[in-house]
Design a protein that fits this description.
Rossmann fold; 9 strands; four-stranded parallel β-sheet; 338 residues; alpha/beta; five-stranded parallel β-sheet
Protein backbone atom coordinates (compact mmCIF):
# COMPACT_ATOMS: atom_id res chain seq x y z
CA UNK A 1 0.00 0.00 0.00
CA UNK A 2 1.15 3.50 -0.84
CA UNK A 3 2.92 5.37 1.98
CA UNK A 4 1.72 2.97 4.65
CA UNK A 5 3.73 1.38 7.47
CA UNK A 6 2.15 -1.98 8.31
CA UNK A 7 4.18 -2.77 11.48
CA UNK A 8 3.46 0.70 12.85
CA UNK A 9 -0.26 0.27 12.23
CA UNK A 10 -0.29 -3.18 13.82
CA UNK A 11 1.41 -1.82 16.93
CA UNK A 12 -1.01 1.09 17.30
CA UNK A 13 -4.12 -1.11 17.05
CA UNK A 14 -2.72 -3.93 19.16
CA UNK A 15 -1.51 -1.55 21.87
CA UNK A 16 -5.03 -0.11 22.09
CA UNK A 17 -6.51 -3.60 22.31
CA UNK A 18 -4.06 -4.36 25.12
CA UNK A 19 -5.72 -1.63 27.24
CA UNK A 20 -8.66 -3.97 27.85
CA UNK A 21 -7.70 -5.06 31.42
CA UNK A 22 -7.25 -1.43 32.53
CA UNK A 23 -10.55 -0.41 30.98
CA UNK A 24 -12.40 -3.35 32.53
CA UNK A 25 -10.99 -2.55 35.96
CA UNK A 26 -12.03 1.10 35.69
CA UNK A 27 -15.56 0.27 34.52
CA UNK A 28 -15.99 -2.39 37.20
CA UNK A 29 -14.99 0.10 39.90
CA UNK A 30 -17.41 2.71 38.58
CA UNK A 31 -20.26 0.22 38.35
CA UNK A 32 -19.58 -0.96 41.89
CA UNK A 33 -19.66 2.64 43.13
CA UNK A 34 -22.74 3.47 41.08
CA UNK A 35 -23.34 6.13 38.44
CA UNK A 36 -26.22 8.01 36.86
CA UNK A 37 -25.25 8.43 33.21
CA UNK A 38 -22.41 8.58 30.71
CA UNK A 39 -21.24 11.74 28.96
CA UNK A 40 -19.09 11.62 25.84
CA UNK A 41 -17.45 15.04 25.68
CA UNK A 42 -15.42 15.95 22.62
CA UNK A 43 -14.78 18.46 19.88
CA UNK A 44 -14.22 18.05 16.17
CA UNK A 45 -13.22 14.48 15.46
CA UNK A 46 -13.53 13.26 19.03
CA UNK A 47 -17.11 14.50 19.15
CA UNK A 48 -17.82 12.90 15.77
CA UNK A 49 -16.41 9.56 16.90
CA UNK A 50 -18.69 9.56 19.94
CA UNK A 51 -21.84 9.69 17.79
CA UNK A 52 -21.65 6.04 16.67
CA UNK A 53 -21.14 5.00 20.27
CA UNK A 54 -24.25 6.88 21.35
CA UNK A 55 -26.21 5.32 18.50
CA UNK A 56 -25.03 1.86 19.56
CA UNK A 57 -26.13 2.44 23.13
CA UNK A 58 -29.43 4.04 22.12
CA UNK A 59 -30.27 0.96 20.05
CA UNK A 60 -28.96 -1.56 22.59
CA UNK A 61 -29.43 -0.48 26.20
CA UNK A 62 -32.54 0.17 28.24
CA UNK A 63 -30.56 0.81 31.41
CA UNK A 64 -27.65 3.09 30.47
CA UNK A 65 -28.30 6.73 29.59
CA UNK A 66 -25.68 8.20 27.25
CA UNK A 67 -25.16 11.81 26.19
CA UNK A 68 -22.81 13.06 23.48
CA UNK A 69 -21.91 16.74 23.71
CA UNK A 70 -19.51 19.27 22.21
CA UNK A 71 -17.08 20.39 24.91
CA UNK A 72 -17.31 24.16 24.44
CA UNK A 73 -21.11 24.14 24.25
CA UNK A 74 -21.38 21.77 27.22
CA UNK A 75 -19.38 24.20 29.35
CA UNK A 76 -21.83 27.00 28.63
CA UNK A 77 -25.22 25.33 28.38
CA UNK A 78 -25.67 24.00 31.90
CA UNK A 79 -26.69 20.47 30.93
CA UNK A 80 -29.39 19.43 33.39
CA UNK A 81 -28.53 15.73 33.20
CA UNK A 82 -24.92 16.33 34.28
CA UNK A 83 -24.02 15.89 37.95
CA UNK A 84 -21.34 14.51 40.23
CA UNK A 85 -22.82 11.08 39.49
CA UNK A 86 -22.05 11.37 35.78
CA UNK A 87 -19.18 9.49 34.14
CA UNK A 88 -17.34 11.68 31.62
CA UNK A 89 -15.52 10.06 28.69
CA UNK A 90 -12.80 11.92 26.80
CA UNK A 91 -10.46 11.11 23.93
CA UNK A 92 -7.61 13.27 22.67
CA UNK A 93 -4.54 12.73 20.53
CA UNK A 94 -2.57 15.80 21.57
CA UNK A 95 -3.71 15.93 25.18
CA UNK A 96 -3.64 19.73 25.06
CA UNK A 97 -6.75 20.72 23.07
CA UNK A 98 -8.04 23.71 25.01
CA UNK A 99 -11.72 22.76 24.95
CA UNK A 100 -11.01 19.20 26.08
CA UNK A 101 -8.66 20.21 28.88
CA UNK A 102 -11.14 22.83 30.14
CA UNK A 103 -14.06 20.38 30.04
CA UNK A 104 -12.11 17.65 31.82
CA UNK A 105 -11.12 20.15 34.52
CA UNK A 106 -14.74 21.31 34.83
CA UNK A 107 -16.06 17.76 35.19
CA UNK A 108 -13.47 16.71 37.71
CA UNK A 109 -14.01 19.82 39.83
CA UNK A 110 -17.76 19.10 39.76
CA UNK A 111 -17.04 15.73 41.34
CA UNK A 112 -17.83 13.61 38.27
CA UNK A 113 -15.53 10.76 37.33
CA UNK A 114 -13.37 11.28 34.24
CA UNK A 115 -11.99 8.66 31.88
CA UNK A 116 -9.45 9.86 29.33
CA UNK A 117 -7.84 8.13 26.39
CA UNK A 118 -4.73 10.05 25.32
CA UNK A 119 -2.15 9.38 22.62
CA UNK A 120 0.50 11.63 24.16
CA UNK A 121 1.16 10.90 27.81
CA UNK A 122 1.98 13.48 30.46
CA UNK A 123 0.03 16.20 28.67
CA UNK A 124 -2.30 18.75 30.34
CA UNK A 125 -5.50 16.68 30.13
CA UNK A 126 -3.88 13.87 32.12
CA UNK A 127 -4.03 16.04 35.25
CA UNK A 128 -7.82 15.79 35.23
CA UNK A 129 -8.18 12.08 34.50
CA UNK A 130 -9.46 9.81 37.25
CA UNK A 131 -8.73 6.97 34.86
CA UNK A 132 -6.12 7.51 32.14
CA UNK A 133 -5.61 5.15 29.21
CA UNK A 134 -2.52 5.83 27.13
CA UNK A 135 -1.36 4.27 23.88
CA UNK A 136 0.48 6.00 21.08
CA UNK A 137 -1.39 6.91 17.88
CA UNK A 138 -1.25 9.58 15.18
CA UNK A 139 -3.93 11.08 12.97
CA UNK A 140 -3.95 8.35 10.33
CA UNK A 141 -4.56 5.61 12.90
CA UNK A 142 -6.06 7.55 15.80
CA UNK A 143 -9.62 6.38 15.28
CA UNK A 144 -8.71 2.72 15.57
CA UNK A 145 -7.28 3.53 19.00
CA UNK A 146 -10.22 5.71 20.06
CA UNK A 147 -12.84 3.24 18.89
CA UNK A 148 -11.06 0.34 20.55
CA UNK A 149 -11.09 2.30 23.81
CA UNK A 150 -14.75 3.35 23.60
CA UNK A 151 -16.05 0.03 22.28
CA UNK A 152 -14.31 -1.85 25.08
CA UNK A 153 -15.54 0.68 27.61
CA UNK A 154 -19.18 0.56 26.56
CA UNK A 155 -19.20 -3.19 26.07
CA UNK A 156 -18.08 -3.57 29.68
CA UNK A 157 -20.77 -1.19 30.91
CA UNK A 158 -23.34 -3.22 28.97
CA UNK A 159 -22.03 -6.49 30.40
CA UNK A 160 -22.20 -5.15 33.95
CA UNK A 161 -25.75 -3.95 33.31
CA UNK A 162 -26.73 -7.46 32.20
CA UNK A 163 -27.25 -6.33 28.60
CA UNK A 164 -24.38 -8.04 26.76
CA UNK A 165 -24.41 -11.80 27.22
CA UNK A 166 -21.93 -12.23 24.37
CA UNK A 167 -19.35 -9.89 25.90
CA UNK A 168 -16.55 -12.43 26.32
CA UNK A 169 -17.03 -13.85 22.83
CA UNK A 170 -17.18 -10.40 21.29
CA UNK A 171 -14.04 -9.17 23.03
CA UNK A 172 -12.09 -12.32 22.16
CA UNK A 173 -13.04 -11.92 18.50
CA UNK A 174 -12.43 -8.17 18.55
CA UNK A 175 -8.88 -8.85 19.73
CA UNK A 176 -8.26 -10.51 16.35
CA UNK A 177 -9.38 -7.52 14.26
CA UNK A 178 -6.02 -6.01 13.27
CA UNK A 179 -5.26 -8.22 10.22
CA UNK A 180 -8.84 -7.78 9.03
CA UNK A 181 -8.47 -4.01 9.09
CA UNK A 182 -5.26 -4.31 7.08
CA UNK A 183 -7.01 -6.58 4.60
CA UNK A 184 -9.81 -4.03 4.28
CA UNK A 185 -7.30 -1.29 3.50
CA UNK A 186 -5.69 -3.47 0.83
CA UNK A 187 -9.13 -4.29 -0.58
CA UNK A 188 -9.92 -0.60 -1.06
CA UNK A 189 -6.41 0.52 -2.06
CA UNK A 190 -6.95 0.42 -5.82
CA UNK A 191 -10.38 2.01 -5.63
CA UNK A 192 -9.12 4.83 -3.44
CA UNK A 193 -6.13 5.49 -5.68
CA UNK A 194 -8.39 5.73 -8.72
CA UNK A 195 -10.91 7.88 -6.87
CA UNK A 196 -8.23 10.30 -5.70
CA UNK A 197 -6.83 10.65 -9.21
CA UNK A 198 -10.30 11.19 -10.63
CA UNK A 199 -11.32 13.75 -8.00
CA UNK A 200 -8.03 15.58 -7.48
CA UNK A 201 -9.54 18.80 -8.85
CA UNK A 202 -13.12 18.30 -7.65
CA UNK A 203 -14.00 21.34 -5.56
CA UNK A 204 -17.14 20.09 -3.80
CA UNK A 205 -18.32 16.80 -2.29
CA UNK A 206 -21.32 15.57 -0.37
CA UNK A 207 -20.52 12.92 2.26
CA UNK A 208 -23.59 10.98 3.37
CA UNK A 209 -24.05 8.49 6.21
CA UNK A 210 -26.56 7.31 8.80
CA UNK A 211 -26.83 5.34 12.02
CA UNK A 212 -23.45 4.08 13.20
CA UNK A 213 -21.75 5.88 10.30
CA UNK A 214 -23.27 9.35 10.56
CA UNK A 215 -20.45 10.44 12.87
CA UNK A 216 -17.86 9.22 10.38
CA UNK A 217 -19.55 11.07 7.51
CA UNK A 218 -19.51 14.22 9.65
CA UNK A 219 -15.88 13.65 10.55
CA UNK A 220 -14.61 12.83 7.07
CA UNK A 221 -16.23 15.89 5.56
CA UNK A 222 -15.04 18.28 8.26
CA UNK A 223 -11.73 16.93 9.55
CA UNK A 224 -10.31 15.38 6.39
CA UNK A 225 -11.71 16.98 3.24
CA UNK A 226 -12.20 20.45 4.73
CA UNK A 227 -9.48 20.75 7.35
CA UNK A 228 -6.76 18.62 5.79
CA UNK A 229 -7.48 19.16 2.08
CA UNK A 230 -9.32 22.52 2.00
CA UNK A 231 -12.13 21.11 -0.16
CA UNK A 232 -15.64 22.46 0.26
CA UNK A 233 -17.71 19.57 1.60
CA UNK A 234 -21.21 19.01 2.93
CA UNK A 235 -21.88 16.23 5.44
CA UNK A 236 -25.50 15.15 5.46
CA UNK A 237 -27.46 12.50 7.32
CA UNK A 238 -29.22 10.14 4.93
CA UNK A 239 -32.51 10.67 6.74
CA UNK A 240 -32.24 14.43 6.13
CA UNK A 241 -30.95 14.32 2.55
CA UNK A 242 -34.47 14.89 1.22
CA UNK A 243 -34.84 18.10 3.21
CA UNK A 244 -32.80 20.48 1.13
CA UNK A 245 -29.50 18.93 0.12
CA UNK A 246 -30.92 16.92 -2.77
CA UNK A 247 -31.75 20.21 -4.51
CA UNK A 248 -28.01 20.80 -4.96
CA UNK A 249 -27.35 17.51 -6.77
CA UNK A 250 -26.48 18.03 -10.42
CA UNK A 251 -25.12 15.83 -13.20
CA UNK A 252 -21.51 15.90 -11.99
CA UNK A 253 -22.00 16.42 -8.25
CA UNK A 254 -19.73 14.13 -6.22
CA UNK A 255 -21.54 12.01 -3.62
CA UNK A 256 -19.56 9.86 -1.19
CA UNK A 257 -21.79 7.31 0.55
CA UNK A 258 -20.85 5.52 3.77
CA UNK A 259 -22.81 2.27 3.95
CA UNK A 260 -22.97 0.42 7.26
CA UNK A 261 -24.74 -2.63 8.62
CA UNK A 262 -27.15 -1.23 11.16
CA UNK A 263 -30.87 -0.59 11.13
CA UNK A 264 -30.57 2.54 8.96
CA UNK A 265 -29.13 0.91 5.85
CA UNK A 266 -32.47 1.40 3.99
CA UNK A 267 -32.01 5.17 4.39
CA UNK A 268 -28.78 4.91 2.41
CA UNK A 269 -30.53 2.82 -0.25
CA UNK A 270 -33.04 5.62 -0.68
CA UNK A 271 -30.28 8.21 -1.21
CA UNK A 272 -28.44 5.98 -3.68
CA UNK A 273 -31.58 5.23 -5.70
CA UNK A 274 -32.29 8.95 -6.05
CA UNK A 275 -28.69 9.95 -6.76
CA UNK A 276 -28.35 7.45 -9.62
CA UNK A 277 -31.09 9.33 -11.47
CA UNK A 278 -29.12 12.59 -11.38
CA UNK A 279 -25.35 12.21 -11.05
CA UNK A 280 -22.71 9.82 -12.36
CA UNK A 281 -20.23 10.77 -9.63
CA UNK A 282 -21.17 8.35 -6.83
CA UNK A 283 -18.57 6.65 -4.64
CA UNK A 284 -19.62 3.97 -2.15
CA UNK A 285 -17.69 2.73 0.88
CA UNK A 286 -19.49 -0.31 2.31
CA UNK A 287 -18.46 -2.18 5.46
CA UNK A 288 -20.54 -5.16 4.30
CA UNK A 289 -17.86 -5.89 1.71
CA UNK A 290 -15.19 -6.30 4.40
CA UNK A 291 -14.35 -9.57 6.14
CA UNK A 292 -14.29 -9.31 9.94
CA UNK A 293 -13.50 -11.85 12.70
CA UNK A 294 -17.02 -11.94 14.13
CA UNK A 295 -19.31 -14.98 14.20
CA UNK A 296 -22.37 -12.93 15.17
CA UNK A 297 -23.50 -10.41 12.49
CA UNK A 298 -24.61 -8.04 15.26
CA UNK A 299 -20.98 -7.54 16.24
CA UNK A 300 -20.19 -6.11 12.78
CA UNK A 301 -22.44 -3.14 13.49
CA UNK A 302 -20.33 -2.24 16.52
CA UNK A 303 -17.06 -2.18 14.58
CA UNK A 304 -18.45 -0.56 11.42
CA UNK A 305 -17.35 3.06 12.10
CA UNK A 306 -13.78 1.90 12.69
CA UNK A 307 -13.86 -0.09 9.45
CA UNK A 308 -15.05 2.96 7.50
CA UNK A 309 -12.29 5.05 9.01
CA UNK A 310 -9.69 2.41 8.15
CA UNK A 311 -10.66 2.24 4.48
CA UNK A 312 -11.24 5.96 3.91
CA UNK A 313 -7.74 6.59 5.27
CA UNK A 314 -6.55 5.12 1.98
CA UNK A 315 -8.48 7.78 0.07
CA UNK A 316 -7.01 10.50 2.29
CA UNK A 317 -3.49 9.22 1.64
CA UNK A 318 -3.96 9.18 -2.14
CA UNK A 319 -5.65 12.60 -2.15
CA UNK A 320 -2.60 13.99 -0.38
CA UNK A 321 -0.41 12.63 -3.19
CA UNK A 322 -2.63 13.56 -6.13
CA UNK A 323 -3.34 17.08 -4.86
CA UNK A 324 0.20 17.66 -3.60
CA UNK A 325 -1.37 18.85 -0.37
CA UNK A 326 0.06 17.35 2.85
CA UNK A 327 -2.59 16.27 5.34
CA UNK A 328 -0.62 18.02 8.08
CA UNK A 329 -0.72 21.53 6.58
CA UNK A 330 -3.09 24.05 8.16
CA UNK A 331 -3.76 27.70 7.40
CA UNK A 332 -5.55 28.61 10.62
CA UNK A 333 -6.03 25.64 12.97
CA UNK A 334 -3.46 25.94 15.77
CA UNK A 335 -1.78 28.61 13.64
CA UNK A 336 -3.90 31.54 14.82
CA UNK A 337 -5.73 32.33 18.03
CA UNK A 338 -9.39 31.37 17.94
Amino acid sequence: MFNFDVPRYEKVVNDAIALRPQIEQAVDEICQQGYKNLFFIGCGGTYAHSLPMKYWMDTTSQKICVHSVIAAEFMLMGHKAFSKDSVCIFSTRSGNTKEIVAAAKFCKEAGARTLVYVSNDNTPVCEYADYKFFSFAEDDCLCEAIYTYTITLLARFLKNAGEFDGYDQFMEQYAQITPYLLQAKEQYEGRCAAMAAHHKDTDYHMVIGSGMLWGEAYDYAMCILEEMQWIKTKSIHAAEFFHGTLELVEKNTSLILFYGEDETRPLMDRVLAFAKKITTEISVFDTKEVALPFTDPAYRKIASPMVIYAITERLSCHLEKERNHPLTVRRYYRQMEY
